[in-house]
Write a structure and sequence with these properties.
Blueprint: H1 6-15, H2 19-22, E1 40-41, E2 44-45, H3 52-64, H4 75-82, H5 90-95
Antiparallel strand pairs: 1-2
């Protein structure tokens, strides 16, 4: 289950929700960058499979309809969706 750890608790706190609300599909849709966890690397998780998001994300998002708000959590999601709009650091990206 994604975000079922200390980082999830921090995310829920930032969002002002509890775990029950966060996992309620009527309130939140969690779209992972890949549906396969590639494992840990030297400095964090290994990258998602190449082209997975290109193949599936737009199809899934079309089915979800109007989401109202999108939160890009993690460097891989931010790089994919923000591209050149990313800043040198995570803090700068979030601030922008």
């Amino acid at each position: 289950m994604p975000w079922d750890d200390a980082s999830g608790v921090k995310l829920w706190t930032w969002l002002g929700v509890d775990d029950e609300q966060f996992y309620d599909p009527g309130l939140f849709a969690i779209l992972l960058m890949d549906f396969y966890y590639p494992g840990k690397g030297k400095s964090g998780d290994l990258p998602p499979r190449k082209d997975f998001a290109d193949l599936w994300h737009m199809r899934i998002l079309a089915e979800l309809g109007d989401l109202g708000r999108t939160i890009l959590v993690g460097g891989y999601a931010q790089k994919y969706y923000l591209g050149d709009r990313m800043k040198p650091s995570l803090t700068e990206t979030v601030t922008a």
